[in-house]
Amino acid sequence: MIGVLTNVHSRQNKKGRYNRYVLKEALGKGGLIRETESLEEIPRVLEEFKKKKVQVIGVNGGDGTLSAALTLLFRYYPKSEPLPKILHMRGGTMNLASNNIEMYGTPLIVARRLRQKLNEVHHDFAQLETTSFWTLKIMASFLQHPLYGFCFGNGIIYKVIQQFYQMGGGSPAKGLRLLSTIIGGSMLQLQDTLALWEKTPGAVIVEGQTLPMKEHLFLLASTYSQLVLGFAPFIHGDRNTDDFNFIAFNVGPGETMRNLPTWMRGIGVADQLPRDDLFNDRVREVLMETRGGFTIDGETWASEKPYELRLALGRQVSFIKL
After folding, report:
1. What is the DSSP secondary structure assignment for residue 15, as one 8-state letter?
2. Higher pLDDT, 78 or 67
3. Against a cut of 0.85, is the pTM above it?
4. Minimal CA–CA distance to 262: which of 303, 239, 233, 287?
5. Is 2.60.200.40 the CATH number for 136-314?
6. DSSP secondary structure letters along 203-269
7. Which of 274, 278, 290, 303: CA 20 to 30 A from 155?
8. Helix or strand (DSSP H, E) at 129
9. In this structure, which topology does domain 2-128 adopt according to CATH?
């Protein structure tokens, strides 16, 4: 059985491209369509899916909806129980999960492809092609439960995402315009833009070793190799092993602007390592003392007080590839 969790407020769905009846028709009789207006409604949907022994969960939303669903799903399925296969249906703005498995199209197109594939394999779910990704497990001292996702960032990354949402969010094109504005404002040293470059104090401990930097512009961790807007900064980003990509970055605005086009693609970074203001490698654990906010797959959390945070690998998720 297939269960689809739809975030009706995600970009693709909010713009009117979503129609529950057309989507149900595309999935066929074996599809359950459940809509959510908020994150608080996700648990009731997942409870129903588990009770009905759903074998594939389609997430019709963006990366934030996906990470929120997985965070809750892991509570319903202990490690001793196999997880349902996940189908990311590209209902959001960036859709990094499906981009990293090179699966494209609208939610409706994805649903039709799934039905066609199931017909080809006589509804044997075990024959669906999948690819696995590790999740990140994020434990912050001000949160009661761990969070799970695929991409963590703080510092200027968090601030830029906050600005993006203040603009009303929207398309990747808006994200590019915001990036262009930040680059231009940094070159002109505009006060509002320079505030983004304020660094975050705090120790960063990587696998038991404290990094030399006492503050950082941002920390970035991901189990993906490709991030938003073609951003691929990791020098070992194409490995899917039992560790994750991690960057600690404390380089100033001038050098960052000069090297941004190449650093965004991970070019030239390895040639400049080791250095005290830049760490870029695959790791198994990161501990940090930090403050302010952070983002996981585009969703944001913040604390007014300093806090401790730990990054480690979470659980593996099998994504259907169509």
Report:
1. I
2. 67
3. yes
4. 233
5. yes
6. -EEETTEE-S-SEESEEEEES-S--GGG----TTTT--SSSEEEEEE---HHHHHHHHHHHTTT-ST
7. 274
8. none
9. Rossmann fold (3.40.50)
